[in-house]
TrEMBL record:
Catalysed transformations (reactions): Exonucleolytic cleavage in either 5'- to 3'- or 3'- to 5'-direction to yield nucleoside 5'-phosphates
Protein's UniProt name: Exodeoxyribonuclease 7 large subunit
NCBIfam families: xseA
Quaternary structure and interacting proteins, as annotated: Heterooligomer composed of large and small subunits.
Coiled coil region boundaries: 353-383
Limits of the OB-fold nucleic acid binding domain: 9-101
Amino acid sequence: MSPPDATALSVSEVNRRARQLLESGIGEVWVEGELSGVSRPASGHVYFTLKDASAQLRGALFRNRARFVGAPMRDGDRVRVRGRVSVFEPRGDYQLIAEAVQAAGEGELLVALERLKQRLAAEGVFANARPLPCPPRHLLVLTSPTGAAIRDVLAVLQARWPLARVTLIGVPVQGREATPALIAALGLLNRQQALDPAQDVILMTRGGGSLEDLWAFNDEYLARAIFHSRLPVMSAVGHEVDVTLSDLAADVRAPTPSAAAEMLVPDRRDLERRLADLERRLSRCAQARLEREGQRLDHLRARLRHPGEGLARQRQALVALEARLHRALQGRLSAERRHLTHLQRRFTACHPGRSIEQSAARLERARSRLEQAVQRRLAKQHERLGSLARQLQAVSPLAVLGRGYAILQNDEGQVVRRATDTQPGQTLTARLGEGRLKVEVKRRFT
């Protein structure tokens, strides 16, 4: 015990000395453990707890370092954290201030699995989405014959749809033998489907377990075998939080084996209730239809009359139509008589004899006018002909020849215009005003 007068340390001083001792004594270390209680407040910092089988250690990854961590930090991930051990003085919390975070152990497997998942997704291996028949005609179950999954599936099928036809194909669902056995069973069932077309759905299932227990269903080749299966595949592996590559490659994924059985078949009790409801609705509809038809029958019965009444109405209508026809005929005859009278007056006005007389008079007047026009035209043309003759005589070369001139032509009939066009001794033709002369060139003057 310290003496009563000894100086007491404050809580802040104790926490400060503890922080200094931890930071200087331990320094920067790598710590491996499982993440738990990961939280990300709005500040951007990440707070978590690292634990192993017998202890746990609080940790903090501040925002300026958190942005350099590639993989998301999730509960259950096994990681290796580099940091320094310190004390948060205001609360006295002992914690690890993280500087870097890496996947470790199972975390490394999850990182590799995530890369494989992304690659298969890019190749379209997870694109299957064929609808499953409900209920299937023949359900093929790939699972362990001794596991809880097949018991759960059969119990649900018996409760919901006892008529279901199920064939169990026993295969190991964990360990090294599981993946080859599952791939071989898928190939065999697809080949047998040609022999039994009623086989229409494959259910691949097992119960929950650790990541290592379910690892057989994360095989790349199994996922590809599911993708290429001609038969549609439902996958129900593990619990709802467990999602394997087989789940993603299947046409339909169920969270649990029991849920898979519920998705594959309808509930007979729902069908019974629906049939009962349909029966009640059918009965109500039939009763309502009978009532409507009864009312319609009563209405038709009230409208029904004795045939004599109908015949009397038809007789009255016939008399009225006969009167209308008589009036129409009388009107038509009167109209035709008026039209005939009009045509007779027009015919009298247009009698052929009168037309012939009028045409003869017009013809005589036209003949007189034609003779007068011909006489005037002949006189005019005669006068014009005399004028043209006088004009022609004025310009005719014969008139020039009549005044004592002559035209000389050589043997080819060409007119001689220059003395140089002749030769002494050449014979020429001289055309006079009256007659022609043959002359010989004795001498040429130029």
